[in-house]
Design goal:
Strand order of the largest sheet: 6-7-8-5-1-4-3-2-9
Bound molecules: fe (ii) ion
Helix content: 10-25%
Shape: globular
Number of domains: 2
Length: 376
């Protein structure tokens, strides 16, 4: 057993050379940004925030920004053929291009990262409009994913310079999603430790947990994972690599269809998972299901919890406990044409871990989906 846990709140905060305030935005390159934005609004309870495209003088791409509490998604499509965004979509399908990190000084963050071995994506760049200025800079991480540092302390606009407010009559009610809890990357076999070292060296992250193939395996498939966290614990990036099993790991399936390393899932937090998942399901979001026998032994496994078991069972919500408390979680089916990215909905009641006790039931559920796709 290799579960190693340290409390994120007590980590190296006094000597954190890379202070990060939180996730600023997540940008996905998608084949039809306008329709994707409608999906995230209708199905996931996001609201229209900002727009960039022909009407704002952007003749290369079109971006729709949707927001729910602290979560901002940017959905971007090219306006012509032959663009890098178009090439990205052709290769990977829809997927995450940018995980933007909110910092106080994007020039300092870039210089520190570069000094420590990062590969540059975007030199510090000042963008201005009548609402002030934003400084952004960026570095590469696994696959074609990049981290953009966003410094917005001198900006009062709706999102970023170059965007205008997206006014619309249609804004569905929130489903109660609050913030990005963690984002998981899938990397090639043998590359997990490389990226662990990257986050340690370049961004000063610490490994707060690790799971080996004995923790995360079923009869057929396995994976390994290490969880990296920044100093204040607001940014958590688990990194998965496939492990040898009798059949194809879900990470291998991802790598085959994404044709690269990339973001596997975005975990978003709620204060009331029963209400949130009820809403999501009513709006057409589909979730992975575990057998109802999971609930027969639930209280034996995790002890007394505040929630009634019946609605958890009805919705398929999973529960796990660690030394600090418990958590409730559920995973959507993949959300685009390829079996690649999906979302996790998570409610933490003290627990700081990631649901290790659910891995087996969950991965068996994923295997049933793989089986249907003929990719197991
Ligand atoms: Fe997760």
């Amino acid at each position: 057993m290799s579960l190693i846990t340290t409390s994120p709140s007590t980590q190296n905060t006094d000597k954190d050379f890379m202070p990060i305030n939180g996730t600023d935005y997540v940008e996905l390159y998608v084949s039809n940004a306008k329709q994707a934005a409608h999906y995230y609004k209708s199905a996931f309870g996001f609201k229209s925030l900002a727009y960039s495209g022909l009407e704002t003088g952007n003749r290369i791409s079109e971006s729709y920004v949707v927001v729910q509490d602290k979560i901002r998604l940017v959905l971007t499509s090219p306006l012509n053929s032959g663009t890098d965004i178009g090439r990205h979509i052709d290769k990977h399908g829809d997927g995450v291009k940018v995980t933007a990190l909110w910092v106080d000084d994007a020039t300092y963050a870039y210089n520190e990262a570069m000094k420590r071995g990062a590969e540059s994506y975007m030199e510090p760049t000042v963008e201005e409009d009548k609402n002030g200025k934003v400084v952004r800079s960026g570095i590469h991480t696994y696959g074609e994913v990049v981290h953009i540092f966003v410094e917005r302390k001198d900006y009062n606009g709706i999102f970023l310079p170059g965007f205008k407010a997206w006014d619309t009559h249609y804004n569905p009610a929130s489903v109660g999603l609050k913030f990005v809890d963690h984002m998981v990357g899938n990397v090639h076999l043998g590359r997990m430790n490389h990226w662990v070292k990257f986050y340690e060296d370049v961004l000063g992250f610490k490994q707060i947990m690790s799971f080996d193939d004995k923790d995360i395996s079923t009869e057929y498939t396995a994976l390994m994972s290490k969880v990296m966290s920044n100093g204040n614990g607001r940014i958590k990036f688990p990194i998965n690599e496939p492990a040898a099993g009798l059949k194809k790991s879900q990470v291998d399936e991802y790598l085959d269809f994404y044709e690269d390393e990339g973001v596997q899932h975005i975990a978003v937090a709620t204060d009331n998972i029963i209400q949130t998942v009820t809403e999501l399901r009513d709006r057409g979001v589909e979730f992975l299901r575990v057998p109802t026998t999971y609930y027969d032994v639930l209280e034996e496994r995790v002890g007394k919890i505040d929630e009634d078991i019946e609605p958890l069972k009805e919705l398929g919500i999973l529960v796990d406990r660690d030394d600090e408390g418990y958590l409730l979680q559920i995973f959507t089916k993949t959300v685009q044409a390829r079996p690649t990215m999906f979302f996790e909905i998570i409610q933490r009641k003290g627990a700081t871990s990631f649901g290790k006790g659910n891995f087996k039931a969950l991965f068996e559920a994923i295997e049933r989906e793989q089986e249907l796709r003929g990719t197991l």
